[in-house]
Specification:
Oligomer: single chain
Number of helices: 16
Structural class: mainly alpha
Strand order of the largest sheet: 1-2
Distance between the termini: 30 Å
């Protein structure tokens, strides 16, 4: 996966984010853009022109590069106010000039209904145009659209064929997704060994998702050799690349198995904290329970209550049954004033960590996960 916000990016992939007690892994679809194609790095000093400034000038003199920069800024809110409709406008300008990255971006916006109406036929058109120009990202997105699309576009065989073409040319993302298909039996015959083969190829290409999958198999994979040290090795590699599910699973593994050597004493807490900051409510739930039970840190019911409030706000309806039980015990022990204070602190924390991200990169350029898609995980236990 790219490591900076200036690289081209993949918008859609299938991912699993399973709880440690899971006995089977479900497929879900995620959309994982970087911070906008061509978007300025956080803290950059060069200011992009606003929409009004550009439209009052001679548009024919605007370069494709500046259109892409402006589109990325509006898509992410980095350099301009976040405005997906304006982002779509500028991506279309660049796409009409033949820019493959813009065509791919525009296809994703139509696929997800971001800034434009949801229209999978229109999305497929733009992906096909970019793919015709040689874009592997667009080919991957088109494959996933065939696999998950509704109505006329759903064609599992064609989607799998496109993935296989990419994988056989060494595309690590396609290798990883093929592994997911074989592990789940979606579109292909279930074949655990074939799944692991594709995951191994993806991991060999330093693909963080593939490394995560291999680590998961060694940790909790059904009908698979369990080797916790190998699991930790692969999960650490993936987590170092910023992959949030790997952070969560590594934290879970290290807490559940003290015999696995930690790289530092606070490693599991740090992994769970980063996953929570990325929007994983299960990580917030675990942090709350650690504070409640006095594990890894002194017992602190106020802190536990705060994490459980964050869990409830992050997870919504999915988290509600777990959060209700978690919060009940703390409410009995805390005064009304303490509860109000922790609610305020939880709201402040949520305000600082609004976006759900799939990657948290060391350079500060996170890869957000569009709200159209959902991370599906095992229970909080």
């Amino acid at each position: 996966m790219p490591s900076t916000a200036s690289d081209s990016h993949f918008h859609d992939s299938w991912r699993r984010f399973a709880g440690a007690s899971a006995c089977s892994l479900a497929i879900v679809f995620l959309a994982a853009p970087l911070c906008g194609q061509g978007a300025p790095a956080s803290g950059g000093s060069e200011r992009l022109g606003t929409l009004d400034e550009v439209t009052t000038s001679d548009r024919s003199s605007a370069s494709t590069e500046s259109e892409m920069q402006l589109a990325g800024a509006y898509l992410t809110g980095k350099g301009e106010p976040k405005d997906p409709a304006r982002a779509a406008y500028w991506y279309r300008k660049a796409a009409d000039r033949g820019n493959q990255d813009a065509q791919n971006e525009l296809g994703y916006l139509y696929m997800s209904g971001t800034g434009v109406p949801h229209d999978e036929m229109e999305a497929s058109k733009w992906f096909a145009r970019a793919m015709g120009g040689g874009s592997q990202e667009a080919k991957l997105n088109l494959a996933l659209l065939y696999l998950k699309g509704d109505g006329r576009l759903r064609d599992v065989n064609l989607g799998t064929d496109l993935l296989r073409q990419l994988a056989e040319k060494g595309n690590a993302h396609a290798e990883d997704i093929l592994g997911v298909l074989y592990l789940s039996g979606y579109g292909v015959q279930h074949d655990r060994k074939m799944a692991e083969t594709w995951f191994a190829r993806a991991a060999k290409g330093k693909n963080p998702e593939g490394e995560y999958e291999r680590g998961n198999l060694y940790f909790i994979g059904p009908d698979h050799e369990h080797d916790l040290r190998k699991a930790a090795k692969f999960l650490r590699r993936s987590a170092r690349a910023g992959y949030v599910p790997a952070m969560y699973m590594l934290g879970v593994l290290l807490l559940a198995h003290p015999e696995v050597v930690r790289q530092r004493e606070d490693e599991p807490i740090e992994m769970l904290r980063r996953a929570a900051e990325a929007g994983a409510w299960q990580a917030s739930a675990r942090l709350g329970r650690l504070a409640r039970d006095g594990r890894e840190r002194p017992r602190d019911l106020a802190e536990a209550f705060r994490w459980f409030l964050i869990e409830e706000k992050q997870g919504g309806q999915e988290a509600e049954p777990y959060a209700r039980a978690d919060l009940a015990g703390c409410r009995q022990a805390l005064s009304a004033g303490q509860q109000d204070e922790e609610l305020r602190r939880a709201d402040d924390w949520i305000a600082q960590h609004r976006e759900t991200v799939l990657y948290m990169l060391h350079d500060g350029a996170n890869i957000p996960l569009h709200a159209t898609y959902v991370i599906e995980v095992g229970g909080a236990d």
